[in-house]
Amino acid sequence: MNKKGEMTIGSIVLLVVAILFGLALINSIGESTNAMTEKQSVDNQSISVVSAFVEANEVNESVNFTIYSQSDWKVQDCPLTSVVLRNGASTELTADTDYVLYANEGVYSLLNTTDTVPATSLNLTYADYDYCADGYNKDSGSRSTANLILIFSTIMLLAAVLEITGITSWTGLVK
User: 54: domain range?
Assistant: First the structure.
């Protein structure tokens, strides 16, 4: 009697364990790959700017506020991108009119023309930006290699499922 296609309880348990274990690993590999290959986004990071105001309409323009602390290699190779600053009323501030951005260092300073007014002691600005996480691969070749790891992990999971289920030949599946 041909037992091809029949699965024992042990095979079913092994199949379930392999799929769950494989999916858990692929999820972890995918998150790591994302950090290595994509810039990360931050929305609505609040930054108190009250220390820049000498009085209601006077800004000390030499005060810098940190958006994101850039490590040495990021200063050279991966400045902040897509930076948008807003005041507490969600009004977008204008670069070089309301503030000066130093994307390489990850800081900005307000200008006297800014429409941010210290109405409260917390006077916040909100920053949206993209940055390179630690472990980000700045070279396109290394980003491609990181993506290959995820692709091969998925193929290995598929191969394990096919082996456990006994499907070793695609000719029986194609008519």
Answer: 40-131
Q: Cα-flanking dihedrals φ and ψ of residue 173, to 5°?
A: -90, -25
Tell me, yes or no, whether 99 and 147 share the same domain. no
* Paired residues of 66 in beta bridges: 107
Residues in the chain, total: 175
User: Is the distance from CB of 93 to CB of 125 less than 8 angstroms?
Assistant: yes
Other Cβ atoms less than 10 A from the Cβ of 141: the count is 8
Q: Which amino acid, 39?
A: K
Cα separations (Å) of 155 from 11, 25, 96, 158?
20, 13, 50, 5
Q: How far apart are CA 150 and CA 159, in angstroms?
A: 14
Answer yes or no: is 3 within a domain. no
Q: What angle do CA 101, 103, 107 make, to 5 degrees?
A: 60
- 153 and 96 in a common domain: no
Strand order in the sheet with 81-86: 40-48, 124-131, 81-86
Same domain, 54 and 100: yes
Over the chain (175 residues), the average pLDDT of each successive run of 10 is 64 84 86 85 88 75 88 85 86 87 91 65 82 83 84 86 71 52
Count the neighbouring beta carbons within 10 Å of the beta carbon of residue 101: 20
Read off the pTM.
Answer: 0.69
In a domain, 174, yes or no: no
Tokens of 134: 């630690």
